[in-house]
Design brief:
- The chain is an alpha+beta fold.
- The protein has two domains: about 30-145, Rieske [2Fe-2S] iron-sulphur domain (Rieske Iron-sulfur Protein); about 150-355, Naphthalene 1,2-dioxygenase Alpha Subunit, Chain A, domain 1.
- About 15% of the residues lie in helices and about 30% in strands.
- The strands form four sheets. An eight-stranded antiparallel beta sheet has the order 12-18-17-16-15-14-13-19.
- Strand 7 and strand 8 (about 105) form a beta hairpin.
- InterPro entries: Cholesterol_7-desaturase, KshA-like_C, Rieske_2Fe-2S, Rieske_2Fe-2S_sf.
- One of its GO terms (biological process) is cholesterol metabolic process.
- It holds the Pfam family Rieske.
- Its cofactor is Fe cation.
- This is 3-ketosteroid 9alpha-monooxygenase subunit A.
Length: about 375
């Protein structure tokens, strides 16, 4: 019998993980560069993104601009140069580039080569953050995909952003998968009592609605409720209602990914917290810091996993995993030419999983969308 069992097991082949080569392009959409005030000092700022280097600078007219940083003359980084008027000037030979990418001045030449131009990148400021638009086809961003304006930002009732960054040694898709990954909340985050989980996929937006218990952020007596929406492939904004030290707390979370190359991305995590009227300003500041620290601790529990996993295009899924394949279908649109995106992705699709919620479920709508 034992030998027969060994023979039976020997005939069972292990599951084969499949992974196609990484995309040869970067996702189309808005990507967050960080707090916009970080680029306000009148100096050029270099950053690595989309497999290249980009320079961001503010001109004399107070407009922010973004250009490919490698000077086409001899290859120096424009980010180590300086700003004159509305131009960034290369430190190597003094070539000056305007905000649209054209070379406008060479100090030692009366003529400028017609091809002396670098790529320019559209920028957008929203809610104290700076976003850059990437499109491999070179098309301008459609207005309907603008980042939402948060009514809470900049008001006395809410804190400023507390923003942190990490570099993750993996592809961006590993982060985005979390939006539909119901099963990871227990093992990774301790939210073992999820009562309700839903996803909405509609055009460039994808949303997760969740109700569950998380002792750190929601307390043990009340449910933690989150409504989190990706506005395109790289920026998630989440409204969260929870509890800290027995007091109800409202917060807004920000999760962003900025691809450095296909195997590394900058992960951004921001938190805004609503002040509690019954507390003094000193007490509110202490409460906000405590809640931000708890939020960062909970969020970074995923980081060790992202650093230590491989790409799986054919995940072996089971009941209770969440609609991961539907999410990936939605996410794949950002790696296609606009005209190749299937029309059905613009239609609203809802996947709803009720695990015993005995109170009314949150409204099934995207966060911060009216």
């Amino acid at each position: 019998m034992a030998s027969a069992l060994r023979a039976s097991n020997a005939n069972k082949s292990p599951y084969q993980i499949e992974a196609a080569p990484l995309p040869d392009r970067y996702a189309r959409g808005w990507h967050c560069l960080g707090l916009s005030c970080g680029f306000d000092d009148g100096k050029p700022h270099s950053l690595n993104a989309f497999g290249t280097r980009i320079v961001v600078f503010k001109g004399a007219d107070q407009r922010l601009r973004a250009l490919s940083a490698w000077c086409p003359h001899m290859g120096a980084d424009l980010g180590i140069g300086h700003v004159e008027g509305n131009r960034v000037v290369c430190r190597f030979h003094g070539w000056a580039f305007g905000g649209e990418g054209a070379c406008e001045h060479i100090p030692y030449s009366k003529t400028i080569p017609p091809k002396a131009r670098v790529r320019s990148w559209p920028l957008q400021q929203r809610n104290g953050l700076l976003f850059i638009w990437n499109d491999e086809q070179g098309q301008l961003p459609p207005p309907e995909q603008d980042m939402p304006q948060l009514a809470e930002y900049g008001t006395p009732d809410w804190s400023d952003w507390s923003l942190s960054h990490w570099v993750i040694n993996n592809n961006c898709r590993e982060l985005v998968d979390n939006l539909a990954d119901l099963a990871h909340f227990g093992p990774v985050h301790g939210s073992s009592n999820v009562k309700y989980f839903a996803n909405i996929f509609e055009g460039h937006r994808a949303t997760q609605v969740m109700v569950g218990i998380n002792e750190r952020l929601g307390g043990t007596r009340n449910h933690l409720t989150t409504v989190a929406t990706y506005f395109g492939p790289a920026c998630l904004i989440c409204r969260m209602s929870g509890e800290a030290d027995g007091m109800p707390v409202e917060s807004i979370l920000l999760v962003t990914n900025l691809p450095i190359d296909q195997s590394h991305f900058q992960l951004g995590f921001g938190v805004m917290v609503k002040r509690i009227p019954a507390l003094s300003e000193a007490q509110n500041q202490a409460m906000i810091k405590h809640y931000v620290d708890l939020s960062i601790q909970a969020f970074t529990e995923d980081v060790a996993v992202w650093h230590n996993k491989v790409r799986v295009d054919n995940p072996l899924l089971c009941a209770g995993d969440g609609p991961i394949r539907q999410l990936r279908d939605w996410y794949a649109q950002f790696y296609k030419d606009v005209e190749a995106v299937p029309a059905q992705l613009g239609q609203r699709r809802v996947v709803e999983i009720n695990l015993g919620l005995n109170t009314p479920a949150p409204a099934l709508r995207h966060a911060f969308s009216g």
